[in-house]
Amino acid sequence: MWAALEWGGMPETLVSAAELASHLADPGWRTFDCRHDLVKTALGAEGYANGHIAGAVFAHLDRDLSAPRSGSNGRHPLPEPERFAAWLGKQGLRASDQVVCYDAGGGTMAARLWWLLRWIGHPSAAVLDGGYARWIAERHPVTKDVQRFAATTYRPATRPELALDATRVARERAQLVLVDARAPARFRGETEPIDPVAGRIPGARNRFCNENLAADGGFKEPAALRAEFGTLLHGRAPSEVVHYCGSGVAACHNALAMEVAGLPGSRVYPGSWSEWIADPRRPRETG
């Protein structure tokens, strides 16, 4: 197991199950359960109720990690910073806490919270490598008890530069490296199981987020990720990269993978394809 990259001495990309287990009693470490199914949206909460990592707070993708839908802002809109910070405060999060986010396995849902925390100005956040599946496989303890935390006043220090809206993507896409995290068939527009229109933003490149994972369900080694993203970027700088997907969730997995690879500085278009197609004037392509 390779070591997680760190910021200020605290993990900021990945944490192993063994490392998290060693910090379960540490009051400065906080854990969030992000399990979710895009079709069966109650599945994550049901799984949490049946067993979770001790001290973990449940974070629902639709309710806690997204803004309400308007019909034109995508399926998982970016929450308002003040609203998201208020939710963090209700969970008792402090600015000094090390956060570990996990989901059922591969980290796609957990990466959404990881990215939101970075966006809100909380860099001491990491994803549990291999997720709950690896936690169980390594026989670490689980509980059905729900721990309560005293509320705090969480003050955001939002980094708006990490996110691009649809207007900026439309205006600047010729200068950007747009990276689509969806499966290749969705990227090519051959199938679209979720959104009403198939296709992609013109000029985008495809990096299916599952390609970030090794056979054991954890992230690939940094050197392997660096080589693969290097091939995708063709010499372009990470700061030119903007990730998107169907609704701004899987895009965060690619952003995390680039950080793991030692390629920091990429950004995310949170509205993604589901917001892009809400305006028929925005261009689309297939093939």
Number of strands: 11
CATH level-four homologous superfamily name of the largest domain: Rhodanese-like domain
Strand order of the largest sheet: 3-7-6-4-5
CATH architecture of the largest domain: 3-Layer(aba) Sandwich
Shape: globular
Strand/helix succession: EEEHEHEHEHEHHEHEHEHEH
First-to-last CA distance:
39 Å
What is the fold-level CATH name, i.e. the topology of the largest domain? Oxidized Rhodanese, domain 1
Strand content: 5-15%
Describe the structure in brief.
With 287 residues, this protein is α/β, with parallel strands linked by helices.
Please provide a written account of the structure.
The protein has 287 residues and is α/β, with parallel strands linked by helices. It has two domains: 6-159, Rhodanese-like domain (Oxidized Rhodanese, domain 1); 163-276, Oxidized Rhodanese, domain 1 (3-Layer(aba) Sandwich). 29% of the residues lie in helices and 12% in strands. It is built from ten helices and eleven strands. The chain has a five-stranded parallel beta sheet with strand order 3-7-6-4-5. It has a four-stranded parallel beta sheet with strand order 9-8-10-11, with helices on one face. A two-stranded antiparallel ribbon has the order 1-2. Helix 4 packs across helix 9 (250-260). It starts with 5 loop residues before the first strand and ends in an 11-residue tail after the last helix. Mean pLDDT is 95; it is low at 1-8.
